[in-house]
Amino acid sequence: xxxxxxxxxxxxxxxxxxxxxxxxxxxxxxxxxxxxxxxxxxxxxxxxxxxxxxxxxxxxxxxxxxxxxxxxxxxxxxxxxxxxxxxxxxxxxxxxxxxxxxxxxxxxxxxxxxxxxxxxxxxxxxxxxxxxxxxxxxxxxxxxxxxxxxxxxxxxxxxxxxxxxxxxxxxxxxxxxxxxxxxxxxxxxxxxxxxxxxxxxxxxxxxxxxxxxxxxxx
Length: 218
Description:
Layout: E1 11-16, H1 23-32, E2 36-39, H2 40-47, H3 55-62, H4 75-82, H5 86-113, E3 118-122, E4 137-142, H6 145-154, H7 159-169, H8 173-181, E5 187-191, H9 196-216
Parallel strand pairs: 1-3, 1-4, 2-3, 4-5
């Protein structure tokens, strides 16, 4: 991506926020509005799929116990390790994040070539993984903890897994992300507490404001 604003490149939005707070719903709306949405979690799975660039490093760090007999990564076994071991989680992120950034940059180049008006990168680790620094704006999608729990349950997540996932991300993640982002320009807080229609209206308004400011700098 170039650093030239306006029509020469897409406007880049980083979507982040706690698990279960609706990042994917916001991304879906942005896709329907004509943007390209890049799912960092999907790219992490691609990087760790058979033949992926992170597989060898994962095997070196975690051993063959997290791989099936046919050589495929056993994601449940790996998750069981990193959910209970912060150092192991940090090691996994150090392995995977650089490969994810490379895959994201490749997709951003395609979006620029195709003159896509805006791109959204959805990533729960947007800030910690260094992706926020590439974005024109960071959208922090938030909801209450009770709403998180309900939404995770509606996905079919088992109660003990809900608690483990919430414990892994830690309490008050939205507040910690706000602190990490600091006073940089271009941080928007979007509430997804309401209905899907209400969330859609919030996204449409935020996008209109963001693009107006972005194009005014062209």
